[in-house]
Amino acid sequence: MDTLAIVILNYNGKPFLAKFLPAVLATADGHPVYVADSASSDDSVPFLKSTFPTVRVIELPRNEGYAGGYNAALEHIRTHYGGATYYVLPNSDIEVTPGWLSPVLALLEANPNIAACQPKIRSYNERDLFEHAGAAGGFVDWLGYVFCRGRVFATFERDHGQYNDNQQVFWATGACLFVKATVFHQTGGFDASFFAHMEEIDWCWRIQRLGYEVWACGESTVYHVGGGTLHKSNPHKTFLNYRNSLYMLYKNWPANGWLWPKILFRLVMDGLSSLLFMREKQWRDVWAIIRAHFAFYGALPKLHQQRRLLKQQQTTEVKLYPKSIVWQYFAEGKKTFNQM
């Protein structure tokens, strides 16, 4: 069994593979590199096989998004290649740096209770800024809104070493996620119904309910282009973010935590946020929010079953950030993590 497997999920991402895969191979430290292709319609697979013969290519039969794609890929690695102790899941649009693996592996091996970890994520295009997808580790507030060390809503901090420590966090980003293989398979991996977006936050929440920890490693840095598969301006991204946020909350919210009042309040807040899209005449995003709400209602029977099962399995109470990040950011003017 390998100590670490580097697994990149690809969907029509040949330009990113050509640009970023050489650095992954150069810094792999002898660990195997896999590319799991989600039935790309470009020539990613023949390009990989001809240009990077040392890469182990997994050809998936269909595109099941980040969640289903990685579930299938990691199960394939376990059954066909003997698995690994840890997996790292860098997006295809991640630029790695020399020595990016060793600090995270050292942290994981020093604390067996850590089941998920991430490096610092900085912007590929604005090199000294933290990037939206994870920054230096994420948290969830008492209404279910997510934020990060280094990024709160649309405020991105410059990295001047303020988050160079190794810190326990609530969630680690799927842009470059290290996971403990036994825990990933024990929990069934990501919730495939999410398809993409917030599945890693849901998974981090679930594993903490089982007593595991999530950390950010400030000694490792990678750079993220962002929106490599689904651009932030795409209304389908809006749909997935709003729907999956509600999925995650319903499944994981504490039994004694006033679930429905908070769900209803979130629905109102989501409605208010649609006014911002209306102001910009982004009608497809408004419709995406409406569709997300109805998708949530339709999924309630399944979500309720998942909620009951997770409650039965839970061994540890999970603490959320006790304040409202929306109030602190917009009303109190606290724009950075360290101000909160």
UniProtKB/TrEMBL annotation:
It holds the Pfam family Glycos_transf_2. This is Glycosyltransferase. Residues 6-152 form the Glycosyltransferase 2-like domain. It comes from the Bacteria. Belongs to the glycosyltransferase 2 family. Coiled coil: none annotated. GO terms for molecular function: glycosyltransferase activity. Keywords: Glycosyltransferase, Transferase. InterPro entries: Glyco_trans_2-like (IPR001173), Nucleotide-diphossugar_trans (IPR029044). It comes from Spirosoma arboris.
